[in-house]
Amino acid sequence: MLNNTSTNLNINQNKQTTNWKQKLYVIFDKGSTTIGLALLFIIMSIITTDFLTVDNLLNVMRQSAVLCIMAVAMTFIIITGGIDLSAGSQLAVSGVVVSGLIVAGVPIPLAILITVLIGGMIGLFMGTVISTQNIPPFIVTLAMTTILSGIAFVYTEGTPVVITDAVFRQIGRGYLGPIPTAIIIMIIVAVIGHILLSHTRFGRYVYTIGDNEEAARLCGINVKWVKTGVYAFGGAITAIAGIVLASRLSSGSPNAGTGSELDAIAAVVLGGTNLFGGEGKITGTLMGVAIISILNNGLNLLNVSSYNQLMIKGVVILLAVWLNSIKARKKASV
Amino acid sequence: MSLSPNERGRYEVNSPIIELKNITKEFSGVKALKGVSLTVYPGSVHALVGENGAGKSTLMKILTGAYSKTSGEILYNGKSIENMDPKNSKKIGIHCIYQELNVANYLTVAENVFLGSQPVNSMGLINWKQMNEKAKEVFASLQINLDPKHVAKNISIAQKQMIEIARAITQEAKILIMDEPTSSLSERETEILLSLVTELKNKGVSILYISHRMDEIFRVCDTVTVLRDGTHIKTLPMSEVQNVDQLVELMVNRKMDDYFNKIEVPIGETVLKVQNLSKTGVLKDINFELRSGEILGIAGLVGAGRTEIAQALFGLLKKDTGEILIDNQLTKINNPSDAIKLGIGFVTENRKETGLVLKQTVRDNISLPNLKKFTKSLLVNKKAEKKVSEDYKQKLNIKARTIEQTVSTLSGGNQQKAIIARWMIQEPRILILDEPCRGVDVGAKAEIFAQISHLAKQGVGIIMISSELSEIVGMSDRAIVMREGVIAGELSKDMITSDNILKLAFGGGISA
Ligand SMILES: Nc1ncnc2c1ncn2[C@@H]1O[C@H](COP(=O)(O)OP(=O)(O)OP(=O)(O)O)[C@@H](O)[C@H]1O
Ligand SMILES: [Mg+2]
After folding, report:
1. Quick one: which of B143, B107, B146, B114 has its CA closest to B131?
2. What pLDDT sits at residue A7?
3. Exposure winner among A128, A263, B347, B505, fewest CB in 10 A?
4. What is the reported pTM?
5. Residues A70, A76, A79, A85: is their CA dihedral positive or negative?
6. What percent of chain B has pLDDT over 70?
7. How far does B208 lie from chain A, in Å, by closest CA?
8. How far is CA B143 from CA B114, B177, B294, in A?
9. What ipTM was predicted for this assembly?
10. Which atom of ligand 1 is nearest to B67's Cα?
């Protein structure tokens, strides 16, 4: 008798804890990025005096524009199950190309167009190699990193190309009404990215390929074409990021953007995109970008040395990837 | 006085090895199991039957610790096991052959057999020689011809299934769960498996056997438990079950009269003509025709070249010689995209590897090859897409909470129905179905066959590959029997009998 009731009790408790855990898990699953962002925002507002000001927040946004544009491109690539380690050096190449063209007297719109096209061609090349030769994206893009860096250095002979054109400098520094131009460009890219990913066939194929390439092929999807397209699109978008950066710095420098691919990857993963492909959203990436940017800004405001910043960011990225993998495991065995 | 072995044996038989008590499992608020109890005795073969989505696999996953239970109790030899995780369950000696196969494609066959328990030498390194030899021994005992050194990627799904069975044998489990082990096996392999089950039972192993093939249940099981909608309906000894109909009625809660729903329709013009199709080592001189409205059955043993014919038609297998004509026009099919453009649809035999997009929703999976239909000025019209997916969810009775549920969380049979829906929407002219009812319950099978008949009535030419003789016999207007890559014989409607098919498949002649 006694024995019986005790087991019953046990069962009930058991039930309650699992329910509670399950609920927590759902919140964690659906909103971990949002919660992280909100926490970071609150903490920064408390421990620094300058963080929560309109000027500073606009500044954070403007500085995040380049990262955000890159991260949109990276989101597509990671959802297909790939990665682009050369995004940083693509940034440098497009920066020096657009500066070089403008210094040589090419009209600004044409210079931008050519740069974006070259960016697209770089992506097209990588995508073709990846999808037709079956070489892992990791290897192809890593090799591309040094090739592109080399090109940027050779082209500039190691010194930045300074741009004096006042109109071009407006792209990264100017305003359209009260809003910084860079932010507007960022929003346009994000919206295009979102529509492409969520509302077009191409976008749906991107997810499918990242999840089950064989099934995609059997449904008549031209897997090679879609993959190549993703890298080409990524290259063109990253070139836009490079142009914005060059404009902000008023120069194209072969050193600009080195290491920024890691920030972009971190933002995408923080935003909930599955590093193994098949899952992810542009809205998530935007939040990931916000986290990285606020972290950068806050650490600067706190006068943390750049070496320490590197370490802190490394820890945050590791944490993000770890959370990501827990989520994946949890999903597999709820 | 000591107990005689016989008496001791009987003593063990009488006390359960595993008891599941009042097991409840919720998935985000929805109950998949509602207080199910199950008692397993040593040396028994306990069948678990029920419709697709009844909760059979879920219950087994709770026993192996793959899922955590929401409430309930698990007892092992009378002792309560607090947290059943995969480690604990392995220690106890529970081994499961899951419904969806877990074979690592880039490891060798032998490595797959010994996954996680590779034999090592004195230095702690993997002993390849021993591993390959042991694997060979197991395969020999299973009478299968499989090279342990082969990479697993290119072997057939039936062979993958046999790898899983070999793995289970080497684990020397005390409690062996088999979740639809025969769903991709043909007659011969099934026989081997069933005799293996009896052999293990005689050794005292407890076997939990899940299958939608009723004849197997009657042949090897001694007890049966019926689940319906997550509840326990009945457990009874097989000796008290009179016939298949009684069991099916318990499962589906209604009387089933017609399993096949075959509609006789007028057969039209020839839509597909295959001439002299050959591929070294796989297919030899294949010739056949398919007419509109016709259901052409392809029977034969696993590995006889049935799937390869389908693959050649769908651009997945490069043929050496031969022609494929559609509407008397010579075609060039180099990839699936070409085939789809010509109006061919293909439901593959391995839904997990070549069909499903697991992280996506039921809707995504249904509409995947049909997105063009729903695209208006570059954007996908989600409303139209949802409507059609919803339609087919109803038509095929796909059990999912909504079409927005992730497809990986559907039961195996319901996943299969989603894949079939995918190709029905495509409105193909020629539909190839490779084991269309793999893992589908009897009720749903009838629904799927009704849909296939309906398609035929609309003039679609249908090629149906099946290892289940009753399906070929019940559905085909004409049948081809394959043996070792050649067509061993063609049977006209009144000649299609199990006997004739088997004779041809094993290399005998048939008498009219
Ligand atoms: N991870 C999950 N998340 C949500 N629901 C799930 C999950 N796994 C299973 N279910 C649901 O639980 C129910 C029982 O599924 P289960 O796989 O146990 O069925 P089954 O009896 O094995 O069917 P089948 O014969 O088709 O294999 C189904 O309705 C299924 O959708
Ligand atoms: Mg199941």
Report:
1. B114
2. 35
3. A128
4. 0.85
5. negative
6. 96
7. 21
8. 18, 22, 37
9. 0.82
10. 1
